[in-house]
Each structure stands twice: as structure tokens, then as C-alpha cells.
Amino acid sequence: MSNSEKTGPISVILDAIRAKRERKTGTLKEIAELEASLLADIDAFDLDAAERRARREYLANSGAGMTDPTLVFPEIAPARPATKPAEPQPPKTKPVAPTVDVKPKIGSSLLDQLRHRAEIRQREIHSELAERSSINEAIDQALKHLFFYLHELVQQLNIIKPEIPRDYPLIEQFELNQLNWQEGFADYRTQSQSAGALVELVTFSYHLNGGTTLHIERDGPSVDRFRAMIFDFGLPFTYKEFKNERSYVERAEFDIRSDVSVSARWRADFSKGVISLETRNLERLGSALYSVRPQAVDQALLDDFGRLVLGQPNRFRELAKR
């Protein structure tokens, strides 16, 4: 401790005591006030702080430790609560409201541009999936409606077994006619459960018979072509070949029964959002293909399809194009 710190407050006390003894002060009241003030200063005097301050001055003056007085280290005083030093305040600027750009700025980073494109693509995919799901459900409902109608139709026709007033021209003057309903069948097929279990196919088939047989003769190269044609139509037949000495088929005789198998396959085309109708021997011998929107499968179209099956006047082609 330095002499200045030791003699400062102590000399004041000694002078006060000496003054009290010598009665140099004015009145007893002033002496009492002075004594109280001195006692308060004594109580407030921090001896430990004075010792630390004296030690720093000694080290600075003696050259030990840090000689630069500007290099001052913080004191560690666990007995006293530490106070957080005031942080420098940044210069006040006018607040700017944040802006949201719909399109990426020209100077934005590559990741920002890709992120923006990815968000747009995700919205497009979500919209496409929602639209596709709606179309698929419409196809599923249309095929279900179709199956219930066809199932009821074949049940009634299997009992009635009506005559179908339709002629099936074959070649030249030959045709299959005076056919009667024999038996029909309707069925359906669905997707797997993992694919959604939607109806993807409705099949409708029936068998017509006329009870007669056509006897047709063909010569030379036309034999093979005619045999391939009636085979493609699915017509039951037998034939007899006549060959010459060189085993070349000169002619053949065909016996074709008036027995026609008809089918209609309503297939879901989910990728195009339509129902594809594939028919065989329905209106004529051979195959035909129709494309039907699911919204067009209503009661009017189903009734006209039934009239088409029965050989009655109908507007099925017109309604299928809606």
C-alpha cells in the first residue's frame, strides 16, 4: 500500500480527533456531523480494492509484468456480480420492408433458380396428378355402370333368346343370317390393390346360331386367302382339298356353319383418359374400334348399345363420339 493511500483517510481522522480535543470547531453539532461523516467514509472504504490498485501501480513502476499502461486485463472478482459491458450500438438506419419475388432475380444464385424451378414443377405435378385421379375415377365409375347394365342385359336375353335380324355378308352372294341368340356373358376385371383396384376391363360376349350351313367352293390361290379369312372371323368350318398330279391344290370345298361368336371389350385407357371399345363380329364380320369418353357412358348410350346388339335401329355411333 502507498503512503498516500495510508495517510489520506487516516490523517483526516487524526485531524478530526485533534480538533475535537482542542475544541477548534465551532459547535458540538458540527463536531457530531463531522464524526458521522468520517465514520461513513471508514465503513465505505474498500481495503482490498486499495491493495489491488497499489499492486498494479507497483508492477507498472517496477517494470515487472506488462509495462504498457494501456494493456489492462479484466479483474476476476467472484465475490462481486459481474456486469455485462455495454455493447456498441450499430448506426441507426431506416428499416426496409422485406420483398418477396415471384420470379428469381437475375443475380440470384444457381440454387435459388433451381429451387424456384423445382417449386413450379412440383405444383404442375400436383395439378396433373389431381386431374389424372379425377379422370381415372370417371373411367372407373363409367365401367362399373356399364358392367351392371350388360350383366342385366345378358340375363334377360339368355331367357328370351330372341332372333337377331342381322345379316353377315361373307363373300359374293353368301351371307350368314336368320341367327338367334344362344347365350351371353358379362364380366369385369380390376387392377391390383396397389394400383388402386380400379375397373380396367369389361367384357361382353354372346353366341349366335342360325342352324344352317354354307357350302362354298374356291379355286387355286384364293383357297388359302379364304381359309385365313374365315379363320380370322372365328367361324367354324370344314373343307376338302382337291389336288392335281403334282400335289398342287386346284380347288377346295368349304362347309361353314351359321355360328357367330360376338364380343365387345370395354378397356380403360387411363393414359389417354378414354374407354377403348374393341368389337368383333358385332355389326359385321371382323373387328372394329371405338373411343368413348367416360362422360358419354350414360343411359342413352347403354340403351342404344343394347339396340345395336339386338339388330335394332340405334344411334350408338353418334352417341359414342360425344
Task: Give structural attributes.
about 325 residues; alpha+beta; 2 domains; 7-stranded antiparallel beta sheet; 9 strands; about 40% helix; rod-shaped; disordered N terminus
Quick synopsis:
By secondary structure, this protein is α+β, with helices and mostly antiparallel strands. It contains seven helices and nine strands.
Structure explained in plain terms:
The protein has 2 domains: 3-62; 131-320, no CATH class. It has 7 helices and 9 strands, in the order H-H-H-H-E-E-E-E-E-H-E-E-E-E-H-H. It has helices at 3-22, 28-44, 47-62, 110-160, 222-233, 299-309, 316-320; strands at 163-164, 168-171, 174-176, 179-190, 199-219, 237-243, 249-269, 274-280, 287-292. The strands form 2 sheets. Strands 1, 4, 5, 6, 7, 8 and 9 form a 7-stranded antiparallel sheet that branches. Mean pLDDT is 82; it is low at 1-6 and 62-88.
Please give the count of helices.
7
Specify Rg, calculated over alpha carbons.
55 Å
Q: In percent, how helical is the residue content? A: 40-55%
From the N-terminal CA to the C-terminal CA, the straight-line distance is 111 Å
- How many domains, in number, for the residues? 2
Order of helices and strands: HHHHEEEEEHEEEEHH
Number of separate strands? 9
Low-confidence stretches: 1-6, 62-88
- Label the overall shape: rod-shaped
Topology:
Blueprint: H1 3-22, H2 28-44, H3 47-62, H4 110-160, E1 163-164, E2 168-171, E3 174-176, E4 179-190, E5 199-219, H5 222-233, E6 237-243, E7 249-269, E8 274-280, E9 287-292, H6 299-309, H7 316-320
Antiparallel strand pairs: 1-4, 2-3, 4-5, 5-7, 6-7, 7-8, 8-9
Helix pairs in contact: 1-2
